[in-house]
Amino acid sequence: MQNKKRSLVVLSLVLLTTLIGTGGLILNVMSTKSTDINADGVVDMKDVALAASAFGSFSGHARWNREADINEDGRVSLKDICHIILDFGLVI
Ligand SMILES: [Ca+2]
Ligand SMILES: [Ca+2]
Fold first, then answer.
1. Which residues are placed with Cβ below 5 angstroms of ligand 2, an ion?
2. What three-state secondary structure class fits 77?
3. Which of 10, 35, 42, 70 has an alpha carbon within 20 to 30 A of 92's alpha carbon?
């Protein structure tokens, strides 16, 4: 239940920043890492959910998911989720 709440909060923040146009501004470093976290060939809500469940984690943390660290800065943050949102719907 707590993960569901966290996912909703993170998703709301991402949608808000994307809608007001700041999503691109906080992505000061472009990433070449795939935003298709679960490697199923499409960037969708499953990938957002995976990143949301790892949100705030870092290497060694219980919820750490290295694949969700899109910008490879050692943390899963809003920047990583914004990368996924910007690629949302992309078929890889
Ligand atoms: Ca995917
Ligand atoms: Ca990161």
1. 69, 71, 73, 75, 80
2. coil
3. 10
Nearest bound ligand to the CA of residue 68: 2
Give this prediction's pTM: 0.73
One digit per residue, pLDDT tens: the chain, 92 residues? 567 777 777 677 666 666 656 555 556 556 779 999 999 999 999 999 999 999 999 999 999 999 999 999 999 999 999 999 999 999 98
Instruction: Kindly give the distance from the C-alpha atom of residue 91 to the centroid of ligand 2, in angstroms, as a whole number.
Output: 22
Helix, strand, coil share of the chain (percent; to 5): 40, 5, 55
